[in-house]
Amino acid sequence: MTWIVRGLIMIEQHELNQTWANLSRLIIKHPGFNQAYQALRNAYLFNQQTGLSKNYWLVGPAGTGKTTLKDMLVKEFPAVDRGDRLTIPVLAIDIPALPTIKNLAEEILVHLGDPLFNRGSAIDKTTRILHLIKVCDVKLIVFDEMQHFIDRGHKRAPAEVADWLKTLIDKAQISTVIMGLERTQIILDSNEQLRRRFSRRIDLKPFDLECTTSRSHFLGVIKKIDATLGLPSPLDLQLDGIARQLHFATNGIMDYMIKLMLGAYQIAVNLELPGIDRNCLQAAFSESIWVEGVGKLNPFHADFFGQRLDQRGMVFYKAPAVELAKAKKGELL
Q: Bigger pLDDT: 30 or 249?
């Protein structure tokens, strides 16, 4: 049996592993997340109660909780086997890594239980999708990772999927949610009619330290994570500059906040410390978030240069859509 000393407490290795697993699965429902969830939930209920549709375009950087929202909807409104048929209130579809209309249609048919998902033309598949949506009593369909059509699809992919989605949505008459990164806008721009159908936009934004309310939520989430870890001494969020350092290290993104705190937790336990301190956070940033984040590029280091790590070559750099388009064009040549 493996034991690790934590302060004056002896704990087993499996307890540490369980704490890690619990935090990895933790859903922190901060106000912005709750508002987004209620909007999507209402889109489902609106179609269920009226037969009419509400469509949303949900946008957010990776790690802000888009997929978690999707999973929560599926959990609240699960599929039910009624013996003669399967009802699927919320149909959640992950866009294939190398997307085409054909393999997207096949992915939908698989989720709808069609054993012949790979048979027939694109038109045949679309017809079967529309039939099964009614048979399975689908009220809401969610497409996650829509930016794959831009990043990895062929040159005409955005326009083609826009045309296909418009047709599917109009004929299915169910609520629809498109989830993706900001550059998903390219798909909507490819079809004016589709863009009008998704005029309702939901933004899952990183926490903003310059906004008093957002700053409070950011620190509240850090506090919640720290409490879940359960070390004897809580992280002192009153330390001079610690809030800004934490924000620089995570860019205000939930996924990075959890990774940073998990990494710092493991370091604190290994060093037999009663709680997470700046040194733990400094080491965790380099180990768990950005291997090149050392010295002046580490927010918790005394020599940190004091700017966001979002420039080219840095951990939070986000390539603009025009740059991605140029890179894609170069691949096609």
A: 249
Residue 321: its pLDDT value, please? Answer: 53
Beta bridge partners of 180: 59
CA distance 95 to 143: 7
* CA pair distance 217, 33, nearest whole angstrom: 11
Q: Which residues contact 81 (CB under 8 A, 6 or more apart)?
A: none
- Tell me, what amino acid is at 266? Q
Cα–Cα distance measured from residue 141 to residue 165, given in angstroms and rounded to the nearest whole number: 11
**Distance, CA of 55 to CA of 136 (rounded, Å):** 20
Residue 7: phi and psi, rounded to 5, are 65, -120
- CA distances from residue 82 to 74, 87, 110, 264 in whole angstroms, order as listed: 17, 7, 18, 48
Residue 11 to residues 17, 91, 92, 235, 265, Cα–Cα distance (Å):
11, 43, 40, 20, 14
Read off the pLDDT of residues 201-234 as tens digits, 9 standing for 90 and up: 999 999 999 999 999 999 999 999 999 999 999 9
pTM, whole model, 2 decimals? Answer: 0.86
**Residue 174 and residue 138 in contact, taking contact as beta carbons nearer than 8 Å:** yes
- Nearby residues of 250 by Cβ (< 8 Å), 6 or more positions away: 256, 257, 260, 289
Q: How far apart are the first and last CA of the chain?
A: 59
Measured CA to CA, the distance from residue 81 to residue 83 in angstroms comes to: 6
For residue 312, give the amino acid letter: R
In the chain, count H helices and then E strands.
Answer: 14, 9
Burial 237-255 (b: 16+ CB within 10 A, else e): eeeeebbebbbbbbbbbbb
Question: In this structure, what token pair is assigned to residue 151?
Answer: 């990043």
Identify the three-state secondary structure at position 113. coil
